[in-house]
Amino acid sequence: MTLCRKAAASTWFRGSLAGLVLLVLQGCASAPNANPRDPWEPFNRQVHSFNEGLDEAVVKPVAIAYQDVTPSFLRTGVSNFFGNLSDVWSLVNNVLQLKPKESAETLARVGVNTTIGLAGVLDVATQLNLQKHNEDFGQTLGHWGVPTGPYLVLPLMGPSTLRDTAALPVNWQGNLIGRLDDSTLRHSLTALRVVDLRAGLLLTGRMIDSASLDKYSFTRDAYLQRRRSLIRGSLGEPNSPQEERYDLPEPVNKTAPGASPPSRP
Amino acid sequence: MLLNRRNWTRLVATAFGSSLNLTLPLARAAEEAPDEIIRRMSTDVLSTIKADKDVQNGDVRKIINFVDTMIMPKVNFLRMTASAVGRSWRQATPEQQKRLQEEFKNLLVRTYAGALSQVQDQTINVKPLRAQAGDTEVTVRTEILGRGEPIQLDYRMEKTAGGWKIYDLNVLGVWLVETYRTQFAQEISARGIDGLIATLALRNKNGAMTNAGPKKN
Lengths: 265, 217
What we know:
heterodimer, A: mainly alpha, 10 helices, globular, B: alpha+beta, five-stranded antiparallel β-sheet, 8 helices
């Protein structure tokens, strides 16, 4: 499991990221039969295994220890606190996407949770049926039609795409923790946030470990689908996939037998 | 007409008494709407899990048993597997196709077994079905409501002679079959269909439910 993209990055990392993207663009010619959505697969796989190694060695053990030693109400409080901060950034992006209902609901969430919810530690808003609408700047770009671009695995931060990577500097501006002046507090909160995110992903990680034959392509395919559905919503999808029915006998003519959909246009 | 077919069946059933009790559930299953099937199945599954500590603790044998009785009758697993395997499915022998379905099912059951311990007070909300009369394929959209954000869970279903059957599943925007297609294709192009079967079998044998999960690179 890799670190979530939401994790705040330290300052030194911001500069090196731009350089890295350039390096990728120049250095990685795509392989002849590359996946069209993943032309930089060889590079991505290397970063993926670097991330995996780091995760196994440091981040995951810390997250497991955190889960073992802290009582669950405390962990919920921590998650809620960071969730409230991310709601602030979601609010900005809901507004940027001109979603009135979601914006209003998110504004109400932040208002309720920051005050009655004691700076976000209690998620009172959810109890009041105010739904969470997570949006980041990558989703905002996607909403306005910016294509995802190739899949990209970032060091420390994991799965991304070219578009989502380009959106990162803007997301960092919206990261309230990054704006704290006290550097000790800033770093501590960032570390806690990473551990909180990772602890929340332990079960998902175990499921991916058990479900995947090739963790890299499983993660990639799931990530790309997930982002697409977050941006477009599942409602835009057709009721049935337009694909050949391999479980039926091969169609002799163009028309497939039975209830299968017509062949691809 | 005063009596539609359903009323007619009921009338006949009442008239003939218990001798027809066996055929009635069958008739009902054949005409049950897809969203109704999902609603009933989800409710049954959730209450079974809540009531059974062994299932919650990930007892794989018990879970497979309950999947076979409660879920599989509603699934066209042949189509699901064939779709994940893709083009090579037609080249596979009947024996290989049988093995692929078995191992794929076990892989999925083992994967989800780990999540069952999380089932506590969740409920399921089936969204209104958006389909026209005469549709033979529909998507049933649901969400699992519990603590935190609702979890999106959608089903693609097709109308068959034996009623509506599930052939693909979407968790949080990710279609199950699509996610396996690349991995299966990779394995088949590297090691053939038997290679894929062997990999799946090994995966299932190694008890993927250990805490850290198998390490593989």
